Amino acid sequence: MRMHNPPHPGQVIKQLCLEPLGVSVTQAAQALGISRKTLSAILNGRARISPEMAVRLSIAFGTSAESWLNQQTQYDLWHAEQRRKQLQVTKLAV
Amino acid sequence: MRMHNPPHPGQVIKQLCLEPLGVSVTQAAQALGISRKTLSAILNGRARISPEMAVRLSIAFGTSAESWLNQQTQYDLWHAEQRRKQLQVTKLAV
DNA sequence: GCGATCTGTAACGTGATAGGTTACAGTGAG
DNA sequence: CTCACTGTAACCTATCACGTTACAGATCGC
User: At what angle do helices A25-32 and A51-61 cross, to 10 degrees?
Assistant: First the structure.
């Protein structure tokens, strides 16, 4: 179980993609082919990165779609682990 | 871009978890605390493994939640990549 | 001050997904 | 035949990923 709350990938996108290029949210949304609202939600952690969005990011920013998706997975998993004890599951194997 | 269509994680669950333990779909669904229908859908590739489901699997079968989720990510990503050319995205960086 | 631009976000809608229950038909063991 | 297991269809609900439109606040040039 991971110890630290991983940052949502939106933060990372902002810092690693938008800011270095001096690109505004509006411009980036247009380039990605999505609405400004959708990108804003991602950047501010109110939306997850879908597989399709990961591919869009990889095209626009020349990065690996897999890395964005893995970051999202780590983020989701951490939050799911926080609710682990509330799940009614019977252990079947060691 | 990955070359081969990765198997859906349901196949792997069946082969690596249910069959070695001689556990039926019905029994496994009860242990996981989900409906038989939901498990059947996962095993037959008609449903994805959610973060919560990954945690359930990790409890019941003593496996890593992360590995199930990563498998799902690879599967989703492969299918998203297949539609890469249909996305209207402008390249912003090299 | 004034207009232009950027930003977050609320209010709506759509289509897809994850989950549930119930019910039915097919298979295989005994 | 009977019983357990299985897939799956029909139906419901809640949530999510998108979209458009519209508004309010910040910031900038002039």
Answer: 110
